[in-house]
Write a structure and sequence with these properties.
The structure is a homodimer of 374-residue chains. Chain A has 374 residues and is of the alpha/beta class. The first copy, chain A, has two domains: 173 residues, 3-Layer(aba) Sandwich (Rossmann fold); 182 residues, Up-down Bundle (Dehydroquinate synthase-like, alpha domain), CATH 1.20.1090. In chain A, the strands form three sheets. In chain A, strands 1-2-9-6-5-3-4 form a seven-stranded mixed β-sheet, with helices on both faces. In chain A, strands 7-8 form a two-stranded antiparallel ribbon. In chain A, helix 1 crosses helix 2, helix 9 crosses helix 12 and helix 10 packs antiparallel against helix 11. The radius of gyration of chain A is 20 Å and the shape is globular. The first copy, chain A, starts with 7 loop residues before the first strand and ends with a helix. The mean pLDDT of chain A is 94. The interface between A and B is large, with 36 and 36 residues.
Chain lengths: 374, 374
């Protein structure tokens, strides 16, 4: 039955909640086989958005059917607004209407929006059902598919409501990424670069040498996804619920979230990965300004992001609103604030990031004022 | 500051999620002290219903204020319909509006409805905040305050949506129970009896000797609550997520849920504890009929429930609808069904319950037909 080459397997070690991420070209063909082998007897509700479903749902459902897995499909509108209480209720209600049991699985076929929403629904229906991710964006394959974070947005902010709910299996088909718009692939690549910049200088160097091959597809892309998943899995295994070192994964994200918020999460202006790219560049320049990071390392990080076609300066983001006040306000509101103290991920150089727990707001303000002055 | 006697402390052992249940008369007076000692620096959102808030909220808020805990109050309508998606959103939104952080606490002041709803909100706001229970019903003190089950109802059934979210602290003031209607106290007592019937024959005997004293209040009541919490804590510690032995806690509940469902969850007809009482009596008689349980044990279990003023037969429930078809349909729908097989808690005698995983539907049908024939 299986015609694709054997996938690369990355294990996320979380005790009783451990799971495998399978990564490879053409994996969607064999999804049913892998599902049935690991969740014998389970039924499936596949959740997708209309755009992704039109491209990939038939293949996934056919593969599940070949493996004898009873499955139905629920399609939702594409876009960030789908991460709402209303759509959460829709998914939960469908799970209950199908009389799925705890041992059955919700299968998320899509990017981060579908994964976050479906994982949350799986986490609360019957107080927790099984969950399988089939991420179809690079961002989802290297980031949201690892770590069990699920959630929706609230009118008061993004991802403010959710649970930690680990999947039972992740199937990342790297061929599927060929259907992504170039801009979305680039945005996901920002998160790949992030793993190098956090604590893997060798991986960063490898990315410098292999960027074009990764964008083209083939074995370099599989390796980039696998290395990213391994990097995130190592962090998550040490800190499942984000109480400590997992904060390193937020490199570039405090700045990035503030930028996304000021841009009103308008994807025409800024998508998440682009915000992270600018945010990582800012984190490196801020670290250099504080005398923590050699100038040449900050330059090299920024150069690689630019070579990938990613923005690295606030001025590159179209539209208005990027004032010092707006940015400082957003940073103070960031949900990763702990008891009022500002936590930032800074760096001592390429691949030498660390958690700085008491960044002085004055220093941050002075730095951002300079950046905005351009 | 503290004037009440030292409370009894019951530890729920769940590794990093372990917590204490403090039990004693007048404990509400000292709630702030205990809260601040265990959650230093945390702020609180107290969630209650209007009935309970009118009786007890002032005392709790004053105690928190004396201990220097910043707290605000959210009151919701009383009754089971409050366990809805809409009210869940209300609580979550208030948590976010107050800018409470993960280390702050949602405090549930009320019975099972408020505890289940607030615990669920605490479990999903910011992907999990701290949670403190101040149970004000006997049922909540001996059952829902132990084990971390939270949730709401769906139009498709009760408690079908929720999470496991352990509290950081439980404060059970046994004096508060004096304000309960007699019928509600009795209904809670059914769950106390349950712990004896599951696997504590000595406790069951002690209840036979001390029932009147427990209803009157005083040390026997504290001991009954503490022993119940210890019993549930022991089961929960062995099976946090209800994959195995925790099922024993459902003694009387498969029948009970079916009866509640047929009675349309109308509290004028049947409240949960009464359903459990009839359900436990049915489980004992069914076990006797299957030749598993000595007749005298079934009689003694039933006699104690009746002595406490609790119903033990389906015919005692007012109203129509208790047909064999309706009951069998509800039992088949019970959310504790695993992959289609009927799981029942049966018993070999007083305090000798066990999980029966393949009860023949025919035997069950024949037994219920006889019961309904009277």
């Amino acid at each position: 039955m299986s015609e694709a080459p054997s996938p690369v397997s990355v294990r996320v070690e979380l005790g009783a909640r451990s799971y495998d991420i399978l990564i490879g070209p053409g994996l969607l063909q064999d999804a049913g086989h892998h599902f049935a082998a690991r969740l014998p007897g389970a039924r499936a509700l596949v959740v997708s958005d209309r755009t992704v479903a039109a491209l990939h749902a038939d293949r996934l459902l056919a593969s599940l059917a070949r493996a004898g897995v009873a499955a139905t499909l629920l399609t939702l509108p594409p876009g960030e607004t789908t991460k709402s209480f209303d759509h959460l209720m829709t998914v939960v209600d469908r799970i209950l209407a199908e009389r799925l049991e705890r041992g059955d699985a919700v299968v998320a076929l899509g990017g981060g929006v579908i994964g976050d929403l479906s994982g949350f629904a799986a986490g609360i229906a019957r107080r927790g059902m099984r969950f399988v991710q089939v991420p179809t964006s690079l961002l989802a394959q290297v980031d949201s598919s690892v770590g069990g974070k699920t959630g929706i947005n609230s009118p008061r902010g993004k991802n403010l409501v959710g649970v930690f709910h680990q999947p039972a299996l992740v199937l990342a088909d790297t061929d599927v990424l060929d259907t992504l718009p170039e801009r979305e692939f680039r945005a996901g690549y920002a998160e790949v670069v992030k793993y190098g910049l956090i604590d893997r200088p060798d991986f960063f160097e490898w990315l410098e040498a292999n960027r074009a091959a990764i964008f083209a597809g083939g074995p370099a892309r599989v390796e980039a996804v696998a290395a990213s998943c391994r990097a995130k899995a190592a962090v998550v295994a040490g800190d499942e619920r984000e109480d400590g070192d997992r904060a390193l994964l937020n490199l570039g994200h405090t700045f990035g979230h503030a930028l996304e918020s000021v841009a009103r999460y308008d994807p025409a202006r800024l998508v998440h990965g682009e915000g992270v790219s600018v945010g990582m560049a800012l984190a490196h320049r801020f670290s250099r300004r504080l005398g923590l990071c050699p100038g040449q390392d900050a330059v090299r990080a920024e150069a690689h992001l630019r070579a990938a076609g990613l923005p690295t300066r606030i001025q590159e983001i179209p539209g208005e609103g990027f004032t010092l006040e707006a940015l400082m306000d957003r940073i103070a509101q960031d949900k990763k604030v702990t008891r009022g103290s500002l936590t930032f991920i800074l760096t001592h150089g390429l691949g030498r990031s660390f958690v700085a727990r008491d960044v002085a707001p004055e220093a941050l303000g002075a730095f951002l004022a300079e950046e905005l002055a351009g």
